[in-house]
Amino acid sequence: QLQLQESGPGLVKPSETLSLTCTVSGGSISSSSYYWGWIRQPPGKGLEWIGSIYYSGSTYYNPSLKSRVTISVDTSKNQFSLKLSSVTAADTAVYYCASTETGRGDAFDIWGQGTMVTVSS
Amino acid sequence: DIQMTQSPSSLSASVGDRVTITCRASQGISNSLAWYQQKPGKAPKLLLYAASRLESGVPSRFSGSGSGTDYTLTISSLQPEDFATYYCQQYYSTPITFGQGTRLEIK
Predict the structure, then answer these.
(1) Is pLDDT at A104 greater than 90 in this prediction?
(2) Residue of A53, A69, A71, A106 best to disrupt the B interface, most CBs of B under 10 A
(3) DSSP letter for each residue of A47-86
(4) Taking residues A22-41, what's their average pLDDT?
(5) Which residue, A11, A38, B26, B79, is most buried by CB atoms nearer than 10 A?
(6) How many Å apart are CA A26 and CA A93, to the nearest integer?
(7) Cα dihedral angle (A18, B4, A98, A71), rounded to 10 degrees?
(8) Model confidence pLDDT, tens digit, residues B56-89
(9) A41-69: b or e for each residue (b if 16 or more CB lie within 10 Å)?
(10) Is pLDDT above 90 for B47?
């Protein structure tokens, strides 16, 4: 059973870069059976898709964040990561990594527990 | 971007009730729709995908239907563990977008 776990700093200063990692266990990040995504949820608000990366290496980002976002894969560590630059208080949220098994479109069937990131000086 | 509008935004119901939540897309999404359940402090849980396909392990009291722009999630007989917030999500085109959520509360 695939499991995901986010990790990274819980506090980031304004204008700096938010960096999070998602460690995959129970499966290979290189597998063509899965693709990977990041979703965030500001406190008390709804869900916002940040972007996804496919086994081919192709990435798709939310245009509202595209200029600031990078998602990449580290096959040696079975991890994928999120970098969000020039953060502001509006980027304060719970950040989830998630996966989609091939055949479910882009419905995210496995989620990490989420990690709260606060942007504050 | 495809806008997803859920109704109602909140709903009070009793155990045993039949409940329906609606999700409307701003354009046709060809059944590329998922439903999630989220409880406080927890990650969302996938209930259905492709509008009506039940995710493995999800109770059969959950069902989905719809086509084109209009979709529904139905819970046939509410159980105490079903009180949560529900989100729809379209994956027909990027950016992937979610509805604003429907909070299901105990009456």
Answers:
(1) no
(2) A106
(3) -EEEEEE-TTS-EEE-TTTGGGEEEEEETTTTEEEEEE-S
(4) 93
(5) A38
(6) 27
(7) -40
(8) 999 999 999 999 999 999 999 999 999 999 999 9
(9) beeeebbbbbbbbbbeeebbbbeebeebb
(10) yes
Cross-chain CB nearest to A46 (options B43, B91, B101): B101
Question: DSSP string spanning A102-119?
Answer: TTSTT---EE---EEEEE
Any A CB within 8 A of B64 CB: no
Question: How far, in Å, CA of B38 to CA of B32, rounded?
Answer: 20
| Pairing outcome for strands A34-41 and B10-13 | unpaired
Q: Is residue A26 very low, low, confident or very high in pLDDT (cuts 50, 70, 90)?
A: very high
Of the candidates B7, B11, B23, B6, the residue with the CA atom closest to the CA atom of residue B78: B11
Local confidence band at B101 (pLDDT 50, 70, 90 cut-offs): very high
Would you call B65 helix, strand, or coil by DSSP?
A: strand
Instruction: State the pairing for strand pair B45-49/B53-54.
Output: antiparallel
DSSP for residue B55: P
Both structure tokens of B103: 């909070």
